[in-house]
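Could someone model pyridoxal-5'-phosphate with this protein?
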Amino acid sequence: MQALGECDLPRRALVALVRREVSALRAEKELPDFFTIVDRSRSAIEDLRLTKIQRVINGTGTIIHTNLGRAPLSQNAFETLAAVASGYSNLEFDLTTGERGARATYLEQNLALLCSGDAATIVNNCAAALLLVLRHFTKTKREVIISRGELIQIGGGFRIPDILEASGATLREVGTTNRTTVDDYAQAIGPETAMILKVHRSNFSMRGFVGSTDTESLARLARAKRIRLVEDLGSGAIIATEKLAGIAHEPTPAEILKSGADLVVFSGDKLFGGAQAGIVAGKARLVAALKREPFFRAVRCDKLILAALQTTVDLYLARREDAVPVVAMMRTTVGELQARARNIIDALHGLLEVPSIGSGKSQLGGGTLPGSAIPSVTLDFESERAAELAAQLRRGVPPVIGYIAGGKYKLDLRTISPAEDEQLIGAIRAATRQP
Ligand SMILES: *Cc1c(COP(=O)(O)O)cnc(C)c1O
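Reply:
Sure, complex below.
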């Protein structure tokens, strides 16, 4: 734990905090003694420090952890970002002509290539991408057809019906919760129908008597009825997940566009493994129209995000996807994790609370593939102090986040980068009881 004196908080923030503490004490009937006052102030300062955004070690096993900042960025993307961020850049400047240039042309072209689309563009997040698409394509005809099985809520209050309402579109629900057929869609199409929206069911799976309609059949129907088909993929996996980690196949943007969807939208910081963004890919004419929409200006990305995504896309195109942390985490074998676990345990030799090697199940998380868990390796602390240990490690430098299962405190090594092992060892040493 950091000593009070070396605390990295600005003096004014500290003074304001201590004043709040003192006035709270004054309101109490009986004034506590001096040491209690100092203790309380000290722990209020410590709590304040913990609210700062800071690097943490994710031992939860959830690869896309929404509360822990979703996808970590690759070192390569980080380096581009740092270089672009700390100086000027050719963001909207054409270096060949010396005149004003278009924004992110290189990134957009390579993204289109990666998604097998004619064109692509980027906005702040997937919710914004969806809002933009809905606003733009429901200007004259208002109706959007969605299956009742896809009217989902994704964490953080993102509900498809609310997004539709916010966009000004009218929702036309078809089918039932568990089954929707092409005929259901076909019968609902009328003179007011602008588009069909297919939404990837992100954070839950359905089993039993279920049926949904594939993109190809919907694309055929949309073409015949001269309406648009847009698919919200959410996670945006680029590499076949079944080959990476032996889990269920997550549809890729390229597959969706090849199946005939006009546009696909997905997040930049889920399985794609880049920075927070909403990526739209598909027909060139439609992407160009979206970029001319005045609302586009309100949701466009800044240069830092564009720089980070540019490098992430290039890593995929160069087949260097192992440099993308989420891809590397999925691909790591249980054998590799066990070897790391042994090294960490060796380094903790002599402590009173040395963990043992356990097993766990890593999750993709972030509203992706709810049904698939990847076998993983954990450090298990068999201690009646599990909850206390968890709290102490959360307060460490850096904070370490694990989970409790079967009375044990567990740290899943799949979501901890090998580069973090040294820091993890230090944090465990500081948090566990010394002999
Ligand atoms: C996560 C998700 C979104 C929201 O993406 P953000 O980038 O957080 O805005 C939208 N649709 C689906 C299907 C998702 O899984």
